[in-house]
Specification:
homodimer, 365 residues, alpha/beta, 14 helices, 21% strand, globular
Chain lengths: 365, 365
C-alpha cells in the first residue's frame, strides 16, 4: 500500500483462510519501507504535471521494482503466494477515470508471484467513485450479528463505516466525517515544529478555546448529508493558519490550539455516529489516529454508550489495516468475488475488481 | 488491435480450439472500425507529450469505451468469451519500460467479458524488447515438421520469422528486414498523390532505375546482423524525398520510382531469407503488402526455390493476422502458457504475458 503522502511503502504479509462464508485475515508481518527518495521525487513531478511521457512510461516499472524490494524485505523466505498492490495514485477523477500506477506484469515477472492490481478502475467505469473500498473489509471483519458497530479510520481525514447488527452489504453506508490527523498535525507543525502530537500529550496539556471550537463546528462539510467525502483541498494548513492568526496570543498557550483541533476532530467523528447510527455500541478505530491516546479518550467521551477501542483489540493492526484490506481484496479477486459496494461507491453494480498477472506457468508449451 | 498509425481498431473474432499440443485459430469475423477522430486527436497529443495528467488518466478509459464499441459491432450477439486487447502504444522504451494504454478493468466491466491486456510489459521487465510477439504465433500456425518455412509480415516495415523444419521454439529467429510498404506508399503519395500502389499497378507499369536501386541497397541496415529492428525513424519520407530529388526528371516516368522502391522492398526481404535460411521452401506472407500483387511477384522472382503465398492460403487472413495473434496470446495467458520467446525478444526467460480482468463472479458474497 502506498498513499498520496509518499512517505512509505506499507507491506502486510497476511494469511487468509476461509471460515464459512467469511475469512480470517491474520497479519504475519508488517513493515513500512521508506519510499526511495528519487522515486518519490519523480512521483511528485508527475502529480505536478511536470513529468515527460518517458517518465510516465518508466514510473510503473520503477514502482514495480520498489514494491518488489519492499516485499522481499518483509518476506525474505518468499512465503507469499500472491501480491496485492494498490499502486500509486497519480490521478483520481471519477466518474471519468482513476489512475493507480504500477506495472502488474513487471511486478509479477520480478517476484515470480501472482500479482493483483488496479482495484479502483472497474468501479469507476461503472459510474462509481472507485472509493472507499475498505467498507467491505470492515463489514467482513468487524460487523457483528448482535451489536450495532462503527469502524472508524483516522488517517489524514477520518471516515466511518456503519455496521448495523446483522446488516447486509447492500445497505452498507460509509463516508468521510471530516479531518482525521490533518489539522492536529498542521497546528503541531505551526506552533511546536512537530510533525504530530505524540500520544496526544500536547492536546492533553491544553484547554479547548470554546469560541474557536464553536466557530470550527459551523464548517458546512459537517452538516452535509452523506454520502460525502473530503480531502486536503478542504481541511488543510490554510484553515489552521486562519485559526492561528485569529487566536494565537501571548496569553493563550499553544497547547490550547492543539487541544481545540483535537476536540473538533473527536466531536466531528462522534457527531456523525450520533446522527446516523445513534444505537452504536461498538466503535473500532484504525489508522494512525489510534496512537493519539487523548483523541481516543475524547472520542470515548463523546460516545458514552459505546465501547471505543483500537481495532488491534480484534486482531487488526490499525497501521496495517488498509494494506490488509487490499491483501484480502486481491484474494477475493482471485476467487472471482466482487469487491466494491455500490451503495458506498455509487457504481451501477458490484463487480470483481482488479487485474491479475500470473507468473510462468508449469507448461512451457 | 490498434497500431501507431491510429487509422483503425481491428477486431478479429476468433475461435480457438486445442488440437494436441497446438491449437487451431479460426477467424469467424473481422472488421476495422475507424478510430473515433477525437480519440485519435487525444492520442496524438499524448504521443507529442502535449497531454495533461487528466488527459492521460482519461485516455485508458476512453480507449476501453472505443474498444468495447468496436467489439460490439463485430460481435453483436456477444459470442466472445474473452477479449484480448493490445492497447494503444504511447511509449516503447525497452529495457526501461513500455506503455500500451487501455484500462483492462474498465473494458471488462463495460463488456462483461474477461479481458486480457498489457502483453509486452513482463518481457520488458525481464530485459527483453517486448517485441516482436508474433513469431510464437508464426511457429504454432505456420511451422512445418518437414519443410523450412519463413513467415513474412509486410506492414509499414517488413519482418521475417525463420521456421526451420521441426525447429524448436528455443531457437526461433525473427527480425526486421527493412521497409515494408512505407517507402512504396511514400513515393505514391509524393508522385501520384495516392496513399498506396493498388495491387502494384504503378510499379508494374514502370522500370527499375538500376543506379537508384544499387544506391539504396547499400543502406547499412540491410548488411547488419540480426537480431535487428527498424522503424520510421530510419525508412521514411525523408529517404524517399532524397530519392525523388535525385532521380525525378521529365524523361523518367514516376512509375519508375515506384518500381524501384518495390524492387528494393522485395529484394531486401528475399536477401535476408537467402542469407539466414537459404534452404527455405515455403514463404507465407501476411500484412497489407499481400495486396500488392506486383511486390508478391517480385518476391517470388527473388526466391525461385520457394513457394511464396499469402498466409490466407493456410487460413490466416493477412489483414487479421496480428489481431488473431493477440487473441491467441490472450488464450495462452488464460491457460497459464508462456507467450514470449527469449531468443527473439532478448528477455531473460519465457513468461506468461499480460494481465487478466475477470468480470462479476457467480457469487455476490
Amino acid at each position: 500500500m502506498t498513499g498520496t503522502s509518499l512517505d512509505a511503502i506499507d507491506v502486510a504479509l497476511c494469511e487468509i483462510q476461509p471460515k464459512g462464508d467469511r475469512q480470517t485475515v491474520t497479519l504475519r508481518s508488517f513493515s513500512s519501507a521508506p519510499y526511495p527518495p528519487e522515486l518519490a521525487y519523480l512521483i511528485r513531478r508527475a502529480l505536478d504535471g511536470a513529468a515527460s511521457m518517458e517518465d510516465l512510461s518508466d514510473l510503473p516499472f520503477l514502482l514495480a521494482r520498489a514494491y518488489a524490494e519492499a516485499w522481499r524485505a518483509v518476506d525474505p523466505n518468499g512465503t507469499a503466494e500472491a501480491i496485492s498492490v494498490h499502486g500509486q495514485t497519480l490521478w483520481h477523477h471519477p466518474p471519468e477515470s482513476t489512475w493507480q500506477a504500477v506495472s502488474g506484469p513487471a511486478l509479477a515477472a520480478l517476484t515470480e508471484r501472482t500479482v493483483i492490481h488496479d482495484f479502483r478502475s472497474a468501479d469507476v467505469a461503472l459510474g462509481g467513485q472507485g472509493a472507499p473500498l475498505v467498507p467491505l473489509f470492515d463489514h467482513a471483519m468487524l460487523g457483528s450479528a448482535t451489536e450495532d458497530c462503527v469502524a472508524v479510520n483516522i488517517g489524514g481525514m477520518a471516515n466511518v463505516t456503519l455496521l448495523p447488527a446483522g446488516g447486509s452489504i447492500d445497505l452498507l453506508q460509509a463516508f468521510d466525517t471530516g479531518p482525521g490527523n490533518v489539522l492536529i498535525n498542521a497546528i503541531c507543525e505551526r506552533t511546536f515544529g512537530k510533525r504530530f502530537d505524540a500520544k496526544g500529550a500536547l492536546a492533553r496539556a491544553g484547554n479547548v478555546i470554546p469560541q474557536a471550537l464553536e466557530e470550527l463546528q459551523t464548517h458546512p462539510f459537517f452538516a452535509q448529508e452523506p454520502p460525502k467525502s473530503t480531502g486536503r483541498e478542504v481541511f488543510n494548513e490554510v484553515l489552521v493558519d486562519h485559526l492561528y492568526r485569529r487566536y494565537a496570543h501571548p496569553s493563550i498557550p499553544s497547547e490550547d490550539l492543539v487541544s481545540t483541533l483535537t476536540e473538533l476532530t473527536a466531536w466531528s467523528i462522534a457527531d456523525h455516529i450520533h446522527r446516523y447510527q445513534p444505537s452504536t455500541s461498538g466503535v473500532f478505530v484504525g489508522g494512525g489516529g489510534v496512537h493519539n491516546h487523548f483523541l481516543m479518550e475524547r472520542l470515548a467521551h463523546y460516545l458514552p454508550d459505546a465501547v471505543v477501542r483500537s481495532c488491534a483489540d480484534v486482531g487488526i493492526d490499525p497501521d496495517a489495516k488498509e494494506a490488509m484490506c487490499f491483501a484480502w481484496l486481491g484474494w477475493r479477486t482471485q476467487q472471482g468475488l466482487v469487491g466494491n459496494v455500490p451503495s458506498v461507491t455509487g457504481a451501477r453494480s458490484a463487480v470483481v475488481l482488479g487485474s491479475v498477472c500470473r507468473t510462468a506457468g508449469t507448461d512451457g508449451g
